[in-house]
Automatic annotation (TrEMBL), chain A:
Keywords: ATP-binding, Nucleotide-binding, Transport. Residues 9-239 form the ABC transporter domain. InterPro entries: AAA+_ATPase (IPR003593), ABC_SmlMolc_Importer (IPR050093), ABC_transporter-like_ATP-bd (IPR003439), ABC_transporter-like_CS (IPR017871), Mo/tungstate-bd_C_term_dom (IPR008995), P-loop_NTPase (IPR027417), Transp-assoc_OB_typ2 (IPR013611). It comes from Xanthobacter flavus. One of its GO terms (molecular function) is ATP binding. Belongs to the ABC transporter superfamily. The keyword Nucleotide-binding applies. This is Spermidine/putrescine transport system ATP-binding protein. The keyword GTP-binding does not apply. Pfam families: ABC_tran (PF00005), TOBE_2 (PF08402). SUPFAM superfamilies: MOP-like, P-loop containing nucleoside triphosphate hydrolases. PANTHER family: SPERMIDINE/PUTRESCINE IMPORT ATP-BINDING PROTEIN POTA, SPERMIDINE_PUTRESCINE IMPORT ATP-BINDING PROTEIN POTA.
Amino acid sequence: MSQSAGHALTLRGISHAFGQVVAANAIDLDIRPGELVSLLGPSGCGKTTLLKIIAGFLRQTSGDVLVDGASISHLPTNRRRIGIVFQNYALFPHMSVAQNIAYGPIAAGRPKAETDAVVSEMLDVVQMAAFRDRLPRELSGGQQQRVALARCLAIRPRILLLDEPFSALDKNLRLDMQIEIKRLQRQSGITTVMVTHDQEEALGMSDRIAVLSRGNLEQFAPPSDIYDRPASLFVNTFVGTANLLRATVAGISASGAAVRLADGMVIETGRETTLSVGAAVLVAVRPEGMRVSATGGAGAIGAEITAVMPIGPALIYEVTLIDGSSVKVVQEREADAPLAGPVFLHLKPNRITGLFPDHSGDTHKKGN
Amino acid sequence: MAGALDPKPRDWALALPLAAFFALFFIAPLGLLVAISFETERQMTGTLGLGQYAAFLSDGLNLAVLRDTLLVGAKATLLCLLFGYPLAWLCTKVSARWQAVLIFLVVLPIVTSVVVRTFAWIVILGRHGIVNETILALGLSAQPLKLLFSETGVVIVLAQVQMPLMVLPLITTLQRIDPNLESASRALGAGAWRTFFKVTLPLSLPGIIAGTILTYTACVTAFVTQSLIGGSRLLFMPMMIFQQAMDLQNWPFAAAVSVIFMVSVLLIVAMLVALSRSRAARLYG
């Protein structure tokens, strides 16, 4: 495939409403040339709406879509040169693999020789040359996806859109196709926007992830930042597993806030907060940011094991804290690991992912 | 069919009442009809032969009636398709509420008696009917057009009367087409027309063929509409059979004409079915 420089995609203040329902609320995204960006969020968060707006299937209520700084909002879909691979692949069932791939070049009026060359090239790129005369229904899910991708790349799109690309594939094939698409995307340097509700997919494949919730952009950052430094409680709980420890702000210093946990212990979080001293706060820690042991020590929190699951090399604990809240911990399976009874929970240094205001504490009910 | 149980032997018994009904009131009369058509004498003396068939096929006037009937059906079916396809397409594009309204309007003619509908058309198409009054008022023609008792009138009315038979299968087929296919076509750079001719139309072919078979068979056998709108000067096969049997009491000839007419229509239907089979085989294996 020709090594073309990718194109920049910019969403500027994109808003869209379906009647009273706001599907996108003033979304700004600057996607760099050659970047693979995931739009991640639960269903109904507006990610598919954004994809449709970029493709031109939907006209945004307000805002602008730009490619390389030039607005494309006024262009109909067929003049945007933005390729899209659908969740169900949407291959033309009455056309062979080769005819599907040739569809775009023919529509663009390319000469036959050029079209044939593009078809052969794309078949090679997705390693489907042996299937060129098959009909889509004669192909497996993974093969159909390859053809859909080839059909899309055959128009040399400026931007590639992937709509839940792996959700229809079984688990083993999914990883293969993820690697394959990542490789093709790297090779071609094509700017790619992928819609997904699967956080592992987004974390594994993306250069940056835009996390959306109810039409709002919660955070737009590289996967490691999304995971380690979530900007909101929503991001922290939606991406990965989050344990939320109830606490109050005990003090604020230059190095971050100190919080008082439910059992009275005060710990340094190393995180800044806008909350004032005395405010109820949720301390977010990932399961791997803590350790369960039979022995206590400085900063150890008393807990009771409610369940242990040995999974291969790891142990997954569920423990209950003194305030009744339950916490999940993942750690290496060691010979002397406790399997029942009272234990101690150790917070590893610098593993608190965030401090978020705790509104549930207002009622003085500490349930789970 | 995945998950469907194989029918047990005695389950077939459930189909017996219907089978008996069909045997008694459809197969048997049809057999009788074919048998009578081989009677060489009008009085049905029992002498068998192909005389009646020879009589029909050797007369150019009879063949002209057969040709006219098959042609008028083809024209009406084509008209149905031309008007019905956009309507069916519209039905699949509008909101669910409008779709219900449109489908109701499409089905409405079925719930009215065909005689009433045809008489309504006589009022509309007559020399002083709505159509001619409008044409004269607009100055499109100096004379009223001869719409009633003409083949044009028959084609127009047949198309309206049989429209639901074309539109309903088309709606079903168009609704089954994945809307992503049209989106994909647009995203690949195809305009609306290319998308229609390369994607929507080929994928709706099964519906076109089903609608065509239903409409065509209904049009060529539409005794009431053909006779009332066509008047006494235009003769079509159903009327010819009626005259031979009821007016002239020539049952063997009427039977032979019926068989010839039936076989002609079946041949056309068979061709359409073969066409749809080859498409379906390619599409759905």
